[in-house]
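Margin note from the TA: students keep mixing up input and output lines. Inputs are the sequences; the output is the structure of the whole complex. Example:
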Amino acid sequence: MNNEQQYIDIFEQHRELIEKPCATLLNEERRKAYSRFKEQGFPALNDEEYRHSDVSKQFAADYGMNLGRVENLTAPYESFTCDVPNLKAHQEFIINDSYLKGIDHKTALPQGVMVGSLNEIAKSNPQLIEPYYNSLAQDGDSIAQFNTTFVQDGIVIYVPKGVIVEDTIQFVTIQSTNIDIMSNRRILVILEERASLNMLVCDHTLSNHKTLSTQITEVFVGDGASMNLYDLEETSESNTRIAQLFVRQQGNSRFNHSNITLTNGFTYNRTQLSMQGEGAESDISGLVINDKHQHTDNRTLVEHKVPRCNSNELYKYILDEESVGVFAGKMLIQPDAQHTNSQQTNRNLCLTKCARMYAQPQLEIYADDVKCSHGSTVGQLDENALFYMQQRGIPIDEARHLLMFAFAGEVIDKIAIEGIRNRLHMLVEKRFRGELSRCNGCSLCHEREQKKTN
Amino acid sequence: MENLIEIKNLHATIDGKEILKGINLTVKPGEVHAIMGPNGSGKSTLSNVLVGHPAYTVTEGEVIYKGKNLLELSAEDRSHEGVFLSFQYPVEIAGVSMTNFMRAAINAKREYLGQEPMSAGDFLKLMREKRALVNLDSKLANRSVNEGFSGGEKKRNEIFQMAMLEPTLSILDETDSGLDIDALRIVAEGVNKLKGPETSTLVITHYQRLLDYIKPDIVHVLYNGRIVKTAGPELALELEERGYDWIKNETL
Amino acid sequence: MKKRNNNIFRKIADKAYEYGFVSNIKTDIIESGLNEDTIRLISQKKNEPEWLLEFRLQAYKYWLTQKMPQWAHLDIPPIDYQAISYYADPLKKNKKQSNEIDPELMKTFEKLGIPLEERLALSGTAVDAVMDSVSVKTTFKEELKEKGIIFCSMSEAIQEYPDLVRKYLGTVVNYRDNFFAALNSAVFSDGSFVYIPKGVRCPMELSTYFRINAANTGQFERTLIVADDNSYVSYLEGCTAPMRDENQLHAAIVEIIVCDNAEVKYSTVQNWYPGDSEGRGGVYNFVTKRGDCRGINSKLSWTQVETGSAITWKYPGCILRGDNSQGEFYSVALTNNYQQADTGTKMIHLGKNTRSTIISKGISAGKSQNSYRGLVRVSKNADNARNYSQCDSLLLGSKCGAHTFPYMDIHNDSAVIEHEATTSKISEDQLFYCNQRGIGTEEAIGLIVNGYAKEVLNKLPMEFAIEAQKLLSVSLEGSVG
């Protein structure tokens, strides 16, 4: 009840503290967003978009917020690098909600490409950021308004016209804290005409305290530009993640997105894709592996506004123990969007009696010359396949793993970058074998592992 | 060891309905037995029961295989002990590559037998060798198990797996169904090449034509859940000529 | 928008609804408005027992606390519930002759193709004819009675079989179920009552024909069907209304109880007046239909062809409570001009080994909006539940909308649930092929649409299926171009 009040109070009391370190642009949007948030409050359970995820309750706890921008004294990235083998990556870090300065990048990015702190770039190049920042999220729900109200920093990636960024930009967010803490982050990606970018966002927690993060990502894919965006969540059971991704696609652009939830606590991901130029193509996918009391809610909206765009969507869930999965995917085909080709597939595996799946694929179509379909299934592993494998001598547990791995593989195989794909195959396999409480790529985990074996 | 497998008074049901009503059958090492019979007589049930399909319940009788109680073993342990079924309808397993599938099978068997896992190199070499035996395209081996395979390719894939796993008792369940004459020959030649003095084969078939290629030592007729006639290879020819009605009449 | 003097367009649109005439029948209509006294008056006119009045008043009190549901993909204009008359009785003229039916009324039903004289009746169909708030006549009652089957109007059932009615009424659709269910429970007038005793297979199709005639009235019928152990019945329902420029309200409840090993088939051809080509007038159709498959091995099958009404809000559902029970929903919903439909089903799996099938075919033309909304819920103890859903949409023209909103709530790991949906249009190639073979475009569309809907139409009893086919073609007239 009225979980918003404490945040309204915080904002009213600490307005100056919040605004002081921030760029004018951020503060201008902040004021607008605050009045919307104050009016709307957190979404209630009778809100169709939140009917299976009590997001408001997640905000009830008394989280610390780093409004005074205290710098992190410990630098977890030094031990936690989240390296992906065989991936040429340009790494950036956000620790809690602070952009980490002074990373020693091994390689230089192409001329004109800008990667850095949102707050800094909004101060130094406001004319670059201004047309984009919050232009999509301003129409978002009250969670988006909340984020804009409290956000103080984040990351900007700008790729000018025709520039192809070969290295993957790897953006690592780490919640590292010894108190309960909330972080509000922002990612802004601007791709001008024919630019190209691969991006991997890894979300981690290194803490057993309650953590909550809101993250708004706005992506602008210009004419003929192309982007691969991979989101990977490996957080902990005490984490709440509320992430919203807004994408605007211009003509003949490509946008591919995979959202992988490997370990988590309570996750609410919203993906909103607007295809505004003819000939745009998108492929969005998601994989959720949940067990214990984990809760993952993925909502997608793919909006076709203009003719001749293609979109493809695949979301898969594997639910074990008492976990809860929610998938609500809507395809919205506006009257002008003739010759749209749009497919959505949702497949769910429930492994126990207590796991719950809520699936809600939706078509909303206002144009007649379109090809649209969706399919959704909930089921179990194929018993005939299991027996066939047993007959060939494969033990039943192993057979199950192979089938689950194959089920998940369909999503992972969509990842275009081999290094990331291989790593995910490995992580998923470890997850199934119950070995995924640690991250192979980081020395911290190695140490932890070694301590354990000693 | 005198008998490879000895089936005694085997009764089995599916969904509460009795299909096998007292099967008695003994196979010695090196023998090829054909089990023939009209549709619905229980042929596929017998093969499924022998490999431990969970849908069937054995209500009476026993099966002694290599001196062990076969019915007590799990489906995978029966496989490790060398019982192989070439399925009538091999299942398609999306997303699981043939290579991963076979490696899992081979290594599980090796573990059962207390052997080290096979190295990747040795495994791939073995795959290549055995593939040649049934002219299985290497492309098929890179695909998912049986997915998108034609009827003939699926059956060849079954025999390929049989070659990989080197079973002691092979059960071929209607392996000839859906095959044209060339495919039938390739499959049958594969089976014959795999045949050794210690390995036995149960050929389950409705028609005689597979038996032109895989010569049986003994032919049984299964009817209404029981073996009603047992004789030499000439029985198959007689069945081909006269059909099954005379047998049905004899048993009435 | 088309101009009003566009004669050809007008003609087609007018022709499209051939049941739009008004009958000149003396009708006793109570004053419009709704309050406790209205309810007492209805109850008194129907000479109802005290418990029923109590039931109505309770529902009314609950209704007052409720707001009209807004979640559907519908644009519902505000409805003034005080401007509606809640009771219209076409029978009332001379009390002495109350057993005779006004010949004008008989004519009306004949004109609708529903002869009320048994000798003229469609073979093997018994009819309960309801005009406005009252059941006019029920045919073949006696013949059915010999087998122990009760088929009569709800008013009659309340008088003759009060215990049966009391035992089942409101047990499937509680008056608290939704806004319109509460309204109906407060003011329901007439409808059909069916009871099939143990072990009886009903020898003929039972049907109810609903007709709204009076102006400014609402129709609030209530149907209750009970199929006792090992029984079977096939029930049909048809509806029409005159063309009027004002909107009319129809808020019905259908409750079905299916006991052990019993089977009920419920078919609807809904052709309430849809409004004219510019969206004026038409019936607002807010209906709660639900069956409770209480018994083991029970089966309930809903088939609906929805072509009428300005607004349709309707989700016939099955509560699959008994082990091995089965629910089916087959639907064709066609919207043209400014019609809006939000329709689908609810399959609630509670028992073990329950099965449900949903086949929905939406057809949108003109400027209409057509939505499928369906829920499949598998509760925690509903082991081995199976559901297959297929929802197809066909769009005719670029100004209409077709939407699909399935909800799947799965709380059991042994469930196998499959949902598929597609959207398509009639291709130019198909039309040209028909044209080349000499079939006009409008007829070709009729043919293709009927082919598209065939899977559902096949589920209807024969006479109904033919009627429904004609209806689909007629309803699409004027949608081309």
